[in-house]
Automatic annotation (TrEMBL):
The lineage of its organism: Bacteria, Bacillati, Actinomycetota, Actinomycetes, Kitasatosporales. HAMAP family: GatA (MF_00120). NCBIfam families: gatA (TIGR00132). It is an enzyme of class 6 (ligase). It comes from the Bacteria. The keyword ATP-binding applies. GO terms for molecular function: ATP binding; glutaminyl-tRNA synthase (glutamine-hydrolyzing) activity; transferase activity. The keyword Nucleotide-binding applies. This is Glutamyl-tRNA(Gln) amidotransferase subunit A. SUPFAM superfamilies: Amidase signature (AS) enzymes. GO terms for biological process: translation. It catalyses: L-glutamyl-tRNA(Gln) + L-glutamine + ATP + H2O = L-glutaminyl-tRNA(Gln) + L-glutamate + ADP + phosphate + H(+). The active site is at K52, S127, S151.
Amino acid sequence: AHLDRIGAVDEKVHAFLHVDTEGALAAAKTVDAKRAAGEKLGPLAGVPLALKDIFTTKGIPTTVGSKILEGWIPPYDATVTTRLKEAGVVILGKTNMDEFAMGSSTENSAYGPTGNPWDLTRIPGGSGGGSAAALAAFQAPLAIGTDTGGSIRQPAAVTGTVGVKPTYGGVSRYGMVAFSSSLDQGGPCARTVLDAALLHQTIAGYDPLDSTSINAPVPPVVEAARNGNVKGLRVGVVKEFGGEGYQAGVVQRFNEAVELLRELGAEIVELSCPSFDLALAAYYLIAPSECSSNLARFDGLRYGLRVGDNGTRSAEEVTALTREAGFGPEVKRRIMLGTYALSSGYYDAYYGSAQKVRTLITRDFERSFGQVDVIISPTTPTTAFPIGERADDPMAMYLADLCTIPANLAGNSAMSVPCGLAPEDGLPVGLQIIAPAMADDRLYRVGAAVE
Ligand code: GLN
């Protein structure tokens, strides 16, 4: 049924870069056979899923939304892919995304934009716009995204779906193409909080193949999603998440969510986190710096695209020609920014300062989590904007992640859950919930209460 739905609507939505009809049907049949044989199956066995095209899939193309990986077939599965397969999840295909996960609208995909199913002329968020759109268009009940600065939560917010960035280190990064390694985190996307929890539980947990994977039990996310009791919970509202630039309808729905939590017995505490105002600036030095190092591996020799290799050119020339043709403008912009920020003579002024700001943000969170159990905010300052509106204005695009970036810089867990439609445009609004590292279960408790 989901493959039929994809067939019927994906020409318009363009959530998928690759649909694996054969593989999906084979996986579903395997689950059926196991069920018929009386084998005990997990809760997600046989459930279809849309996988962001940043996770390697053995034998299935993985482009990361870039021309530079066009035609590359990975020889191995990411740990997330392996865990999904082991749980009997049926992978329907690979979803569209901003090239190398750099963007907030999916317009930076080398394969064309994805439409927001609520209004196809608007963006579905990014970089995981394909995964979020697949959920909102009922092409898949579950999806996987990655969140470096908001790419799970912001698409969830603007498509009326649920998205979770687990604690940094909570879900393995092995086989997840690296953008900014100290920030990147894979996580679940779904239409309900409980579905997200079941998926979270399936993909999370220690992986010896990822050196930053946390070797501790996965927080009890499914129990929390079933519980939803917020009585006595201390909920922080940060004054820096608000003010100029926030759409009236977004603020209205956020305030209603605050009132709802109060009615349900939560204690609302006002907080100030002064360093949050610097988060966006710090992020746009740290993420490009790490990307400039990570993307050095795309040299035209090892993977995918190779341009100009006619036997007369040097390896350096082939690398330069391949990168020129294979990387899009935003990726080039970030590689240049990052290379500059890491250069000797500039390192202390830019990268070094950004790292100090990162520490200040972490301290703001630590101080806050001494007083509250979770922090809430709007996920995004505005609802989905029209495709093209911010395409030529990187600064306007970067502002879409104003509220989501601090949690990445500190490594906390965070969720976006729908909290109604903005009255002025009828588009979905997301409530962001942030919890300390390894307290991901609190997200699900609060998410279940407000959903
Ligand atoms: N929009 C942010 C960026 O462009 C975040 C991307 C992400 O989380 N992958 O970097």
